[in-house]
């Protein structure tokens, strides 16, 4: 019972801290879109940017454990290109 309760409190803490630390990122992204692409500040823009950023961070968190395998395959593919591609 204590193990489940501890896990529940960790999840609650992570959800709350993500919201606090992500607010400046959300605000910076929205400000950049308003200044650069002349969007108007609206609820629709806020919903779309926050949803896209949430999915981006979720995708990064899901794929992060597999970076070791990707590094192996990247190094495996990079080695032959150093021999075949000449420097100008």
TrEMBL record:
Q: What is this protein called?
A: Amino acid transporter transmembrane domain-containing protein
Identify the PANTHER family for this entry.
OS05G0424000 PROTEIN-RELATED
Give the GO biological process terms: amino acid transport
Q: Name one GO cellular component term.
A: membrane
Q: Does the keyword Transmembrane apply?
A: yes
The record's section on InterPro entries has: AA_transpt_TM
Transmembrane residues, as ranges? 47-79
């Amino acid at each position: 019972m204590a193990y489940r309760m501890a896990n529940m409190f960790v999840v609650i803490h992570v959800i709350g801290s993500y919201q606090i630390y992500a607010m400046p990122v959300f605000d910076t992204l929205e400000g950049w879109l308003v200044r650069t692409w002349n969007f108007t500040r609206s609820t629709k823009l806020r919903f779309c940017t926050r949803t896209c950023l949430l999915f981006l961070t979720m995708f990064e968190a899901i794929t992060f454990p597999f970076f070791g395998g990707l590094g192996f395959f990247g190094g495996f593919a990079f080695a032959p290109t150093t021999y075949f591609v000449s420097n100008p």
